[in-house]
Amino acid sequence: MKKRGTSTGIVIGSLIIGLLIGAAIVYAAGPSLGLGGKTTTITTGSVTFTTTVGSGATGSSGLCNGQTIPIGALNDLSSQLSAQGQGDLAAEQIAIQDLNSYLKTAGCSLTFTLDSDDYHLDTPTALTDIQAMYASGVRVVVGPLDSGTANGILSYANSNHIVLISPSSTSPALHFNDVTNVYLFRTAPNDAAQGQADAREMVDRGAQAVIIINRDDTYGNGLANATKSFLEKDGISAANIKGPYSYPTTTADFSTLITQIGSDYSSLSSAVGASHVAIFSVSFQEIGTLLPQAKTENKALLSTTLPWFGVDGTAQNTVLSNSTTGPVVAQVRLPSTLFNVVNNSKTLDFYNRFKGTSTLAKITGGGAFYTLEGYDDVWLAALSILSAGKNDGTAIHAIFPTVAADFYGLTGWEGLTGNDRIPGSYQIWKVVATTSSSSGYGWVLAGTWDYNTDTVTWISPP
Fold first, then answer.
1. C-alpha dist (Å) from residue 326 to 78, 333, 459
2. In 42-81, where does DSSP find H-type helix?
3. Of residues 285, 330, 347, the one with CA closest to residue 145
4. Is the dihedral of CA 137, 141, 147, 149 positive or negative?
5. Cα–Cα distance measured from residue 449 to residue 309, given in angstroms and rounded to the nearest whole number
6. Burial of 294 (0-12, 13-18, 19+ CB in 10 A)
7. Cα 385 to Cα 407: distance, rounded to the nearest angstrom
8. Which residues contact 390 (CB under 8 A, 6 or more apart)?
């Protein structure tokens, strides 16, 4: 393997960071770096900046020496997060193209490739995938998408110094203040904040009693328990909170759970009144199996006064708003929280660039924050390699928090607290019947929850 210097990587890293921060920035390489005097001016959107990049004065040192560096991606393309996974992959592929285009424009002879695998929400498969990636030279991986899998492969990643950048792992159990030996970074906030948002949302709509169900994994258990804790802080007595009832992630028949929900709904309705009982589901796409089954086995559960409340595992998921599942999901409305995308100029430029394409339909059909974050995470991976000056996991890990703190991407600022994104406000999306969708159903923005004030503002109350 060729020895890789750091100077060219640092300058090119600065080049791209400047591009994505969104301000007019001028960088000078400086003669001490020995990069020669090639000056490049790049204009993209509203951003114009000038930098001096390598012209070969350092020979084959640095990263701009014709080499190819792979970035890994672990996506679910065929299981309960497939809508998100397909959107993430589409965004990641665009990011790789954009990265290579920018590097070429800057005069850097370096190519990034995407080594993507479908781990179909299965931890053993993800472990096999990441082992193969490591053997092929991958030192930073975008993914996995879920906390259960992230937890399952973290020991291998830590031991082998493979940086994991997950766009959507959010379990509080995987938050670490000290990241010295933790190779998992998460570019979404952990679910302590979402649990607070979900509790406030239900109480705001008049809930005095709540039935909690959740998928039995690190994500489901973490968010269910966080929400229960905040419900109690918001004044709902423990006696009026039933569950959390966890179900195996492989569940295909929800009869037992539906019976439990029906029984609890009846008893809680007697205690506080049916109009004050909420059902809260921490789920992925499997809620699209549970609800039609409930319609058959206990139809009254789909006509409750308060809606069934959902989470980021369901928000904007097009599998839940298609022509088959949409009618039953729209009946319960399923208002679902999703970390707020800051619609900055880069976000809007990205939407306009792909407006009307099947690519954008995929990206917006799996939870736009998480899929746009797939794009940003590829950039974060590449910038960390460039800033480290070498494709080395230890060096990438060391520089990553600094790169994230300097990065403003499609979803906004990427600053971290420990290994997680700094928390902020959430959007609330619900499914409705609409003529604007070919399926007849779609997700619309129902409201927002403000992190600083713990208040909900409704646009279209569910």
1. 20, 10, 21
2. none
3. 285
4. negative
5. 14
6. buried
7. 14
8. 4, 6, 9, 63
Rounded Cα distance, 45 and 19, in Å: 10
- Find out whether the peptide bond into 244 is cis, omega within 30 degrees of 0: yes
- Bond from prior residue into 167 cis (ω within 30 degrees of 0): no
At residue 343 the predicted structure's pLDDT band, cuts being 50, 70 and 90, is confident
- CA 131 to centroid of chain Cα atoms: 23
The conformational region for residue 334 under phi > 0 = left, psi -120 to 50 = alpha, else beta, is left
Whether this model's pTM surpasses 0.70? yes
- Output DSSP code: residue 307: P
Contact indicator for 12, 390 with CB cutoff of 8 Å: no
Closest CA to 106 of 382, 335, 364: 382
Cα gap 394→390, rounded to integer Å? 10
pLDDT, tens only, 79-117: 999 999 999 999 999 999 999 999 999 899 999 999 999
Helix (H, G, I), strand (E, B) or coil at 456: strand
CA 2 to chain centre: 35
| CA atoms of 38 and 29, how far apart (whole Å) | 10
| CA distance to 31, 53, 117, 253, 383, per residue, from 27 (Å) | 13, 10, 37, 60, 16
| Contact in structure between 35 and 29 (CB atoms under 8 Å) | yes
| Cβ-contact 73, 95 below 8 angstroms | no
Instruction: Count CB atoms within 10 A of the CB of residue 97.
Output: 12
pLDDT in tens, 118-169: 999 999 999 999 999 999 999 999 999 999 999 999 999 999 999 999 999 9
Determine how β-strand 408-409 pairs with β-strand 412-413: antiparallel
Contact yes or no for 280/227 (Cβ under 8 A): yes
Q: Which domains does the chain have, with CATH numbers?
A: 64-188+365-421 (3.40.50.2300), 191-311+318-339+425-458 (3.40.50.2300)
Query: Is the C-alpha dihedral spanning 44, 46, 48, 54 positive or negative?
Result: negative
Host H or E run for residue 458? strand 455-458
Mention every residue, 6+ apart, whose C-beta is less than 8 A from residue 72. Answer: 115, 116, 117, 130, 133, 138, 140, 141, 142, 143, 162
**CA–CA distance, 87 with 74 (Å, rounded to integer):** 12
Name beta bridge partners: 116.
73
Tracing tokens 């492989």 back to the chain, one arrives at: 250
Q: Identify the weakest region by mean pLDDT among 18-27, 231-240, 359-368.
A: 18-27
